[in-house]
C-alpha cells in the first residue's frame, strides 16, 4: 500500500533577511478572518454591546492574550524542565510550541480586563470570541500539519501519512482530524446555534468549551502523546487531562446561562 509522505518546508517565503513561516501566516489568517467574522456577527445580532468598535479594540488584546497564554501554557504544561534549563528558548515562539489550553486562559484574562474597562458583559463578549475561534483553530492545525508536528499514532489506514521526523511508519494525520473537528465542526455548530432567537448570554461560550473538550479528548486517542510527557498513568494524555475541566466548566456555564444567571450577575455588577 502506498502511503502519503509529507515533507513541506516550514518557511513559506523569504524576503532578504526576513523569513516568513507558514506558522506565522496561519496565526495571521486566523486572527484577521476571525476578526472579520466577529464584526459581521455583532452586526447581524444588532446588540448594543459589544459593537464593532469593541471588536476592533479587542483584537490587540486577544492577540496578546492568545500568544502569551499559549506560549506560557506550553512552557508550564508540556516542557517545563527544558525551558528551566534554557530559559531564552521560551522566547523563540517561531520555533513552535503553543498550548491551546494556555491560549484559552490568556484570552479569558484579556476579555475579563477588557470587559471591565469598557463596561461590557464579559459573557456577551466571550460568545463573540467563541464563534470566531474555530477559524483560528482550523488554520493553526493546518500549520501543525505543514510543520509535521503533533502527528498521530501509527496506523495502517489508507490515508496514513509518513512524517519525516516520526520514522518510516505511516501515522494518523491527527492535525487534519483536529482541523475538521475543532475548526469546521465547531464553527458550523456554533453558527447554527447562534441563529436561535433570544439565546441566553454565555450559551455559545459554554458550548464551545464542551464541544472542544470532547472533540480534543476523542482525537487524543489517535494522536501521539508528547514525547517528553508520554501517557499519564499509561492511560491518558495531558491534552485529555486539560480538556476535562473545560468540559466541566462548560456544563456549569451552560446550566447558568439557561437560567439567565450569567447576564444578571454581570449586568448587576455594572
Percent of residues in beta strands? under 5%
Taking all Cα atoms into account, the compactness measure Rg is: 19 Å
* Mass-distribution shape: globular
SS-derived structural category: mainly alpha
How much helical structure, as a percent, in the residues? 55-70%
- Mind summarizing the main beta sheet? 2 strands, parallel
Work out the number of β strands.
4
Strand order of the largest sheet: 1-4
The number of domains is 1
3D structure, described in words:
The chain has one domain. Helices cover 62% and strands 5% of the residues. The strands form two sheets. It has a two-stranded parallel sheet with strand order 1-4. It has a two-stranded antiparallel ribbon with strand order 2-3. β2 and β3 form a beta hairpin. α1 crosses α2, α1 packs antiparallel against α5 and α6 runs antiparallel to α7. The N and C termini lie far apart (64 Å).
Amino acid at each position: 500500500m502506498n502511503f502519503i509522505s509529507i515533507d513541506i518546508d516550514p518557511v513559506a517565503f523569504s524576503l532578504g533577511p526576513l523569513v516568513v513561516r507558514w506558522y506565522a501566516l496561519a496565526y495571521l489568517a486566523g486572527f484577521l478572518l476571525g476578526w472579520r467574522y466577529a464584526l459581521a456577527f455583532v452586526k447581524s445580532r444588532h446588540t448594543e454591546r459589544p459593537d464593532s468598535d469593541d471588536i476592533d479594540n479587542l483584537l490587540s488584546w486577544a492577540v496578546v492574550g492568545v500568544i502569551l497564554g499559549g506560549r506560557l501554557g506550553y512552557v508550564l504544561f508540556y516542557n517545563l524542565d527544558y525551558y528551566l534549563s534554557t530559559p531564552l528558548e521560551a522566547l523563540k515562539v517561531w520555533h513552535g510550541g503553543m498550548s491551546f489550553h494556555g491560549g484559552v486562559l490568556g484570552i479569558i484574562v484579556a476579555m475579563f480586563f477588557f470587559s471591565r474597562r469598557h463596561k461590557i458583559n464579559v459573557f456577551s463578549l466571550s460568545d463573540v470570541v467563541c464563534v470566531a475561534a474555530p477559524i483560528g483553530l482550523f488554520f493553526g492545525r493546518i500549520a501543525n500539519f505543514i510543520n509535521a508536528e503533533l502527528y498521530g499514532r501509527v496506523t495502517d489506514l489508507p490515508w496514513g501519512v509518513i512524517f519525516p521526523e516520526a520514522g518510516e511508519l505511516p501515522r494518523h494525520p491527527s492535525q487534519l482530524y483536529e482541523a475538521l473537528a475543532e475548526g469546521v465542526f465547531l464553527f458550523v455548530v456554533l453558527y447554527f446555534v447562534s441563529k436561535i432567537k433570544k439565546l441566553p448570554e454565555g450559551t455559545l461560550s459554554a458550548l464551545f468549551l464542551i464541544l472542544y473538550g470532547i472533540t480534543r479528548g476523542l482525537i487524543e486517542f489517535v494522536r501521539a502523546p508528547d514525547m517528553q510527557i508520554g501517557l499519564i498513568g499509561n492511560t491518558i494524555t495531558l491534552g485529555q487531562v486539560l480538556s476535562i475541566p473545560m468540559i466541566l466548566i462548560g456544563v456549569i456555564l451552560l446550566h447558568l446561562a439557561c437560567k439567565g444567571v450569567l447576564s444578571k450577575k454581570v449586568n448587576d455588577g455594572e
